[in-house]
Amino acid sequence: MVESLEDLAERLRRIPNLHADGGKVDALLRTHAIDPAALAPYVRYEDGRYTRNCVYRNGIFELLVLCWAPGARSPIHDHGGNRCWLVPQTGAFTIDDYLRIEGGRRPGPVRLEQCAAAPLELGDVDARGFDDLHDIHAVHVDRPSISLHVYAAPIGRYLVYDWQHGSCDARSFAAQDVLDYVI
């Protein structure tokens, strides 16, 4: 059992290659239990959207707490060629998956197809591969939600997709650093 975010970061550091050892990351996240009080320093809400709050980052991975306003939704996005794990801490989410039909490997025109939708609740872990596209929706409209994310390796640039207009654009990843913590 993991009780603090610092303990989780330390356990993740012990996994030599998060890309190759994704099963170990998945198992760790499925068996961890973060003390809700440990999330408090990272909780930052903004009306109508979500915030990304960095807990830990090194050259191998980063650990973030995302705070979702009621009903907030991410854009459709990739992870810049990195693996990603999402673990709900409070609330519930829906994950919509998409396939690239045409384009979408770099900024410009794209044609996407929605291929799946799945609920994500407390106790679930959503693991993403190198090439996956999805959006995330906090389903509760009457209260905020919190999710924990692990990215292997830290995301620098990624693509955001506009399904309605058939385009995608590059973005630089920005997370609010709320703790100057180095393990």
Model description:
The C terminus is likely disordered. The chain is mainly β. The strands form two sheets. It has a six-stranded mixed beta sheet with strand order 7-4-9-2-1-12, with helices on one face. The protein has a six-stranded antiparallel beta sheet with strand order 3-10-11-6-5-8, with no helix packed on it. The protein contains three helices and twelve strands, in the order H-H-H-E-E-E-E-E-E-E-E-E-E-E-E. Helices cover 13% and strands 44% of the residues. The protein has one domain: Jelly Rolls, CATH 2.60.120.10.
In short:
By secondary structure, the chain is mainly beta.
The coarse silhouette is globular
What structural category arises from helix and sheet content?
mainly beta
Main sheet characteristics: 6 strands, mixed
Overall CATH class: Mainly Beta
CATH domain fold name: Jelly Rolls
